[in-house]
Design goal:
alpha+beta; Alpha-Beta Plaits; 5-stranded antiparallel sheet; about 60% helix
């Protein structure tokens, strides 16, 4: 018979799973308490939560949340980073932490929009530029044809203005 604490833990974790836009499973074995505290702090600054979970409770929570693929993330010592806003943020923060600290934090797998991501796919996600930069690049690409069209259309008018200006300078030189 499950205890009330376990039922609450399953319900809490099921809520986190269903609310998250991405969940990334990590193997945190080998990290000390101070390292985990620093990791949690960095993730929290980015709006990401990090939870060390018991695999059995996480499996029950995933089933309750209707995300059966979540079982693929669970093996060994499991810590899960839950990203709620932009999926890239969680992956990027975990990747940067592992690279900067050179600690044995292993990113195993992730799940985003119901699809399971391998560790290489999570690393590729972390390598993406920030959302604002991608939007700016897209807008620049959309603006380029319009700018080119304006430049081409203003060419004859600019040429006529240059001819008239030179002719005016020539007449002023002859008359002066």
């Amino acid at each position: 018979m499950p205890t009330d604490a376990k039922r609450d833990a399953v319900a809490d974790l099921a809520g986190r799973i269903s609310r998250s836009s991405i969940a990334i499973a990590t193997d945190f074995s080998g990290l000390g308490v101070n390292n985990l505290t620093e990791l949690r702090k960095r993730l929290r600054e980015q709006g990401v939560e990090y939870r060390v979970v018991k695999n059995r409770i996480a499996l029950l929570a995933a089933t309750e949340a209707g995300l059966d693929q979540f079982a693929e993330l669970l093996e060994g010592s499991t810590g899960i980073a839950f990203g709620y806003d932009e999926p890239v943020t969680a992956a990027k923060t975990l990747d940067e932490f592992a690279k900067q600290t050179r600690l044995p934090l292993i990113i195993r797998k992730g799940i985003m929009d119901g699809a399971v991501l391998s560790s290489t796919q999570v690393a590729a996600l972390a390598a993406l530029p920030p959302r604002d930069q991608l939007i700016a690049k897209l807008l620049g690409q959309m603006n380029a044809p319009i700018t080119g069209l304006v430049y081409v259309l203003s060419g004859p008018v600019r040429g006529l203005a240059m001819v008239l200006q030179r002719r005016g300078e020539q007449l002023a030189a002859e008359g002066g």
